[in-house]
Design goal:
By secondary structure, the protein is mainly alpha-helical. It has helices at residues 8-17, 19-38, 45-53, 62-69, 73-85, 107-130, 136-146, and strands at residues 89-93, 101-105. The chain has a domain at 40-144: Winged helix-like DNA-binding domain superfamily/Winged helix DNA-binding domain (Arc Repressor Mutant, subunit A, Orthogonal Bundle). The chain starts with 7 loop residues before the first helix and ends in a 13-residue tail after the last helix. The mean pLDDT is 87. Residues 140-159 are annotated as: Disordered.
């Protein structure tokens, strides 16, 4: 039985207008798509993102990655342990702060990223091509604003 203060049209209104619901639905679908294409490599989309975040000149600390990946420390620590057990990354003490650990790719981690990158590029291009009403750049900027990033990420140079 419907509550008169919560009629069905309110349910329809929220279902149509709710940005949170739409973002969650889109995120789940994107995660499913990327999980599927990375499955032959034994990776999930989250593992790919974590490994790629380690591909930088200076190895990051765990705390450096929580904001970048939008993960809490406990969840990120669990994800790191899985990849570490697989030999795709390792942790080493920070030279300046022995309490902190630096996270780095292993040779096996770099190798799997090299395999995954063409798959990511092809899948990403296909998804961007499916966007009709807004450009991919507008979508990225809007999502960055909603996630609290101070400014949209710059387009990376091709050098």
């Amino acid at each position: 039985m419907m509550d008169p203060e919560l009629p069905l049209d309110v349910t329809h209104e929220v279902g149509w207008a709710c940005l949170c619901l739409r973002a969650q639905r889109a995120a789940r679908q994107l995660a499913r798509i990327f999980d599927e294409v990375f499955r032959p490599l034994g990776l999930t989309n989250g593992q790919f993102s974590l490994l790629m975040s380690l591909n930088r000149p200076a190895p990051p600390r765990l705390t450096d990655l929580t904001g970048q990946l939008g993960m809490d420390r406990t969840t990120l620590t669990a994800a790191v342990k899985v990849l570490e057990r697989r030999g795709l990354m390792r942790q080493e003490p920070d030279e300046k702060d022995k309490r902190a650990k630096r996270l780095m790719l292993t040779d096996a981690g770099r190798a799997i990223l090299k395999e995954a990158l063409p798959i990511w590029r092809e899948t990403h291009a296909r998804i961007e091509a499916e966007l009709e009403r807004i450009t991919a750049a507008q979508l990225r900027d809007g999502l960055d604003q909603l996630s609290g990033r101070s400014k949209p990420a710059e387009t990376p140079s091709k050098s």
